[in-house]
Design a protein that fits this description.
The chain is an alpha+beta fold. Helices cover 30% and strands 28% of the residues. It contains 3 helices and 4 strands, in the order ααββββα.
Length: 109
C-alpha cells in the first residue's frame, strides 16, 4: 500500500504545480483612422448617394476630424468640389460641404 502511495506521489510531483489562472490582455486603446481609411469612407459616402467622385486629398484639421477633399462630376456642385469632415475615431461623416470655403482650397496642405 505504501508503495502505491509513493508511486502516486511521484507522478503527481512530476506533473508540476497547477497552471496559472488565465487573465486575458486588456483591449488595445482606440486608434485614429488613417488618411486612406478616411478617404475610403468619403468615397463610399459619395457612392451611396449616387455621386461620381474621386478623392483629392485628406488632412487632419483638428485632433479628431479628418477633412477629405473630393472632385465631383455632377453639375449642381460648385466647381465640381465637395468637402467631407469625418470623425477621426469612428469614420462617421460629421459634415458635407458642396461649396468649400476659399481658405480651405488654398490651405489644403
Amino acid at each position: 500500500m505504501i508503495a502505491l502511495l509513493a508511486q502516486i506521489f511521484v507522478f503527481h510531483a512530476a506533473w508540476g504545480p497547477p497552471a496559472p489562472a488565465y487573465h486575458p490582455l486588456p483591449p488595445p486603446p482606440p486608434a485614429i483612422i488613417s488618411a486612406q481609411r478616411a478617404t475610403f469612407d468619403a468615397l463610399r459616402y459619395c457612392r451611396d448617394r449616387g455621386v461620381a467622385c474621386r478623392a483629392d486629398g485628406a488632412r487632419l484639421v483638428r485632433p479628431d476630424v479628418w477633412r477629405v477633399f473630393i472632385d465631383v462630376k455632377r453639375r449642381h456642385h460648385y466647381r465640381g468640389e465637395m468637402v467631407l469632415d469625418l470623425d477621426a475615431w469612428s469614420g462617421r461623416v460629421l459634415a458635407a460641404y458642396d461649396r468649400p470655403r476659399p481658405a480651405w482650397r488654398w490651405n489644403r496642405w
